[in-house]
Amino acid sequence: MKRPLIVVLNGPNLNLLGLRQPDIYGHATLDDVEQVCLQAAERLDVAIDFRQTNGEGELVSWVQECRSRANGIVINPAAYGHTSIALLDALHAVELPVIEVHISNIHRREAFRHHSYVSQVARGVICGLGVRGYAHALQAMADIIEDEG
Ligand code: DQA
């Protein structure tokens, strides 16, 4: 049987993980995050497509593409979570389960990070658990896909 496909999307500046504010985001790079996701996917017997972009339009297009090919979306929208109604609309339109991830605990940070548009469409939100949050999100998404067939 074909393995379910979970698309893992990463928004702006996450290409700088490891270099960027390590006191907040830690020392793991985006390649390390991809490895965490690949190991979780192997264990869960799901396929993943792991991507990062700095562009809001590109992120919206990638979400739209998921409609015909994916079973679920795990997304760290980064700053676009706080600002992008276009991203929220795309996530609604795609009609797939969504789990939102933030490496840092956005609720312990500046007030402008406390609100996320993506949370309105997400089944669940994992924040503050570092890059391990991605593995937890993949586990939860695999469970959702299995339960909802
Ligand atoms: C982030 C939190 C956001 O507030 C921030 O803009 C990011 C990263 C996180 O993973 O903790 O770029 O999404």
Question: How would you sum up this structure, described in words?
Answer:
The protein is an alpha/beta fold and 149 residues long. The chain is built from six helices and five strands, in the order E-H-H-E-H-E-H-H-E-E-H. It has helices spanning 22-25, 30-44, 56-69, 80-83, 85-94, 132-148; strands at 5-10, 47-52, 72-76, 98-102, 124-127. Strands 2-1-3-4-5 form a five-stranded parallel sheet, with helices on both faces. The chain starts with a strand and ends with a helix. The structure holds 1,3,4-trihydroxy-5-OXO-cyclohexanecarboxylic acid. 1,3,4-trihydroxy-5-OXO-cyclohexanecarboxylic acid (DQA) binds at residues 13, 76, 78-79, 102-104, 106, 113.
List the helices and strands and how they pair.
Layout (H helix, E strand, L loop, with lengths): L4 E6 L11 H4 L4 H15 L2 E6 L3 H14 L2 E5 L3 H4 L1 H10 L3 E5 L21 E4 L4 H17 L1
Parallel strand pairs: 1-2, 1-3, 3-4, 4-5
Helix pairs in contact: 2-6, 3-5
Bound molecules: 1,3,4-trihydroxy-5-OXO-cyclohexanecarboxylic acid.
The site of 1,3,4-trihydroxy-5-OXO-cyclohexanecarboxylic acid has 9 residues, from loops.
Concise overview:
The chain has 149 residues and is α/β, with parallel strands linked by helices. The protein is built from six helices and five strands; from the N terminus they run βααβαβααββα.
